[in-house]
Amino acid sequence: MRPGVANRTSPANRTGPPGPFSSSNYATYFADDAGRIACCGLDYADSYWFDDGYADHIRHYLWAMAAIPEFAPTRENHLLRSSSVVTHVSYGRNKIQYKTFDPDAGEVLRLAAAPAQITADAKPLPRSDDPTKAGFTARPLPGGDWIVRIRHHAAREINVNLSH
Asked: How far is 28 from 37, CA to CA, in rounded Å?
């Protein structure tokens, strides 16, 4: 058993220098392959706490992926964070559609392809480097993925069409 085995596809299982990836290992509280949680390794009898591990490590990974989208799985589309409650999300082959509770909100996504068009309540959002204005930024990653940050005002329904 070692830290980071709760999710075999997580960044915590990647090799590399110490830093944010390595630190995220400890969010798993030493999970074994079955998801059981031990507080301090296997140094004493009955070291496992619970089978579900409180689900803390999952929440910590989600927070980490929202803060550092490079941590999110590659070659997949993910809505990683919203400043509002997301009331619906749908992932299609070349699009993501979602609705937010608040009309003024911001989101972070990791996409497997560049965004071709992003709309807010059916109105196109422009590219914008100003985080206070409605619009989006798109930054390419090695391997073809993109990190997209969206800001919308007076709109709840967001559509992200991808350029596949």
From this structure: 8
